[in-house]
């Protein structure tokens, strides 16, 4: 499912094993609904690292990156709830970035895309035609290329002071929604992404399974 928004907040973190159930309860019943209610937010999603228990990718799609630097959003970040204050100290190795979408190809219904690859990387430039090439790989669905918005990513907030992490150092993010078969470690899509990333630097290539989704009803 593709949205018209070009902004993205992506947050990678490991959750302490003993706190995972409580984290999921907080994220499902308080955090995602509250964030999606903010003007300009379109969709909230959480993914669990494929083959892991506590490695998560949390994402929000927004109208544009300005939404993620807006007063309405920053007010929430600077006034965390008691439950949020309880939860954030259980995050380990957090990385949170704000991105703007550069290119997008394909469309996948959420129920047909139970997996997603995230590839964070640095490069001189992203090759022309890369997304179209990947789109031809068996099992690939929606493919999106993002570039970091360093200014908004670097805004200090009360929530950041609690979990202690900062923005990741990679300039680009490639997200590839895919089918169950294409999410495997020995899949053609995994090989295509690995081959494509060979010339890049500081690469983090991870596969995640969908864990929770909430879309805003009505307008953004």
Explain this structure to me?
- The chain has a single domain, classed as Alpha-Beta Plaits (2-Layer Sandwich).
- Helices cover 25% and strands 36% of the residues.
- The chain has seven helices and eight strands.
- It has an eight-stranded antiparallel barrel.
- Strand 2 (41-49) and strand 3 form a beta hairpin.
For this structure, what is the CATH class?
Answer: Alpha Beta
* SS field, number of helical segments: 7
Taken together, the total number of domains comes to 1
Mean pLDDT: 93
Helix-and-strand structural type: alpha+beta
* Secondary-structure element order, N to C: EHEEHHEEHEHHEHE
Shape: globular
**Strand proportion:** 35-45%
Strand order of the largest sheet: 1-3-2-8-5-7-6-4
Low-confidence stretches: none
Helix content: 25-40%
The N- and C-terminal alpha carbons lie at a distance of 16 Å
| CATH architecture label | 2-Layer Sandwich
Summarize the structure.
This protein is an alpha+beta fold. The protein has helices spanning 20-36, 71-77, 82-87, 130-135, 150-153, 158-163, 188-196, and strands at 7-15, 41-49, 55-62, 91-105, 115-122, 140-148, 172-178, 201-215.
């Amino acid at each position: 499912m593709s949205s018209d928004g070009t902004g993205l907040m992506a947050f990678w973190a490991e959750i302490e094993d003993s706190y995972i159930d409580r984290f999921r309860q907080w994220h499902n019943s308080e955090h995602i609904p509250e964030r999606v209610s903010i003007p300009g937010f379109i969709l909230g999603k959480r993914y669990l690292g494929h083959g892991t228990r506590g490695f998560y990718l949390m994402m929000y799609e927004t109208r544009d990156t300005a939404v993620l630097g807006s007063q309405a959003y920053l007010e929430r970040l600077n006034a965390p709830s008691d439950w949020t204050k309880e939860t954030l100290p259980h995050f380990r190795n957090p990385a949170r970035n704000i991105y703007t979408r550069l290119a997008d190809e394909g469309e996948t219904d959420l129920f047909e895309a139970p997996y997603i690859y995230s590839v964070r990387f640095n490069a001189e430039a992203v090759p022309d035609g890369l997304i179209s090439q990947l789109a031809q790989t068996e099992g690939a669905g929606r493919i999106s290329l993002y570039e970091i918005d360093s200014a908004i990513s670097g805004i200090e907030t009360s929530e950041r002071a609690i979990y202690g992490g900062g923005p990741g150092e990679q300039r680009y993010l490639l997200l590839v929604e895919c089918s169950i078969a294409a999410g495997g470690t020995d899949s053609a899509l995994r090989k295509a992404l690995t081959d494509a990333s060979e010339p890049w630097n500081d690469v983090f290539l991870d596969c995640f399974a969908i864990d929770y989704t909430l879309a805003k009803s009505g307008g953004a």
